[in-house]
Structures are given as structure tokens and as C-alpha cells.
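Subject: sequence -> C-alpha cells, single chain

Hey, anyone have a minute? Need the predicted structure for the following. Not urgent.
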Amino acid sequence: MEKKIAVIGAGNLGLSLAKGLVESKTYKPNQFNLSRRRIEKLKNMAQDGYNIYNDNVEAIKNANIVIVAVLPQKINDVLDELKGSLNENHLLISLVSGVEISSIKEIIGSNIPIIRAMPNTAISIRESMTCITTVPKWENHLGIVKDLFNDVGETAIINEEKMTSATALCACGIAFFLRSIRAASQGGNEIDFHASEALRMAAQTAKGAAALLLENNSHPEDEIDKVTSPKGCTIAGLNEMEHNGFSSAFIKGITVSANKAKNLYE
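Reply:
Had a minute. Here:
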């Protein structure tokens, strides 16, 4: 029997997940029930074969897995709406930042298995870094969720108290790294390349840098040492960036983001 997956709150992240899972060839569009209030925003998805709804209760009726991908401020209302229709045959996966399993359980009860997952929008091209957690009672469901997200990138099972940190480093981190690539492309534009040319060069260089670390299982400084020579142009550029606070600003951005994530639900 094919799995049926309901995505409640099919915005950027929810749609990215559905598209990525279909791209993996493990799932088909008709296995997804996509729900959001403004259903007109899902018309293109319907043309591609996805089932679309603006009624959350209807969307979960024939689903095995219910993925909640709404804003933290909206989750209580959504769970209140769904709780009468959820049962022990459902597996609920929350992608909502800062909302603990205990808070979800208070609303829907303790019979429905709950897993938290924190992917990022690179899930649409199957390159997400997804962190997953649950409580001991439902650890037997982790394998299903890990397999699901392994189809769209890499996964890590972590303790729940680290989930807000995962939000900052992995989910918000997409934006941080994109901003650094944009800055690199602007630098390239200033030193003689056309904007589109500079962006392509910067993006591929960033991709290559990340691949070096992942393929070689190495530390960034090991790879940096390979490209820096005494009194050379690389070390000159690195030192100028550090003098202007590049590393400290990046670190501070991640820590501020993590602190903000803790308070979104409240």
C-alpha cells in the first residue's frame, strides 16, 4: 500500500519537501495532499498531479503521514482543528520551529506518534540537511522519518533540546550562506566581471568548497592551508575579511537566530 502524505501549510518549505520527494522517484505527486488556506496558490501543483485542499481535516483523512509546516504562531489553531480527526494510525511530523513535542502532545494527546524534523529549502533539489528528534516513546518511528528525509538530502538524529540550534544552523543557514555567495558575487562584479558571470562563478566556487569538506572529511582550515601561500593574495584577502569581522559577524548571526527561534512559539 502506497503511503499518503498530507502537508498542512503547503508554503515554501512544505512545497519544497513534496517536490523533493517526488524528484527522488520514491513518491508520486498523487501521494501528496497539499493544504493551505489560499488554495489558488496551489493551482500549479494540482496541474502536476498533486491533490490540493483548503480544508486541513479533509487533507488528512486518507493520509498515513501528516506533516505540519505552518508558522509557530499558527500551530495551536491548526492542531486544535486536526485533533478530532487524528488517530494512532497517523504519524505526525512537525517542521515548526521552536515548538516542543510536549506542547504538541498537550493539544492532540499522547496516542499519536510525534516526530520533529528541521529541513531546509534545499530539500526541493534533494540537498537538505535535516535534523530529526522525538521522545523515547516514539523512537521506533524514527527509521520511517529518517528514510523519508534521506530521499531529499542528509539527516541527523539529535536531542530535542538542540532543535532550535539546528533551526539556526541548517534552516536559517541556507540564507546565511546565500548572503555570503551574494557578497562574493558583488566583489566579483567590482573587480571586472558582469553580475551574472560573477554570481555563477561565486556559486560554483562555494559548491566546490563545500564538496571538498564533505568528500575529504576535512576541516576548513586544512583546505584553506592548501590555497594560502606566504605573502600571497589569498591570505591577504582572508586577513582583510577577518579585520572587518567576517567570522565574528557570521557566528553572531547564527547565535542571534537561535535565540530568536526559541521565542517564536511564545
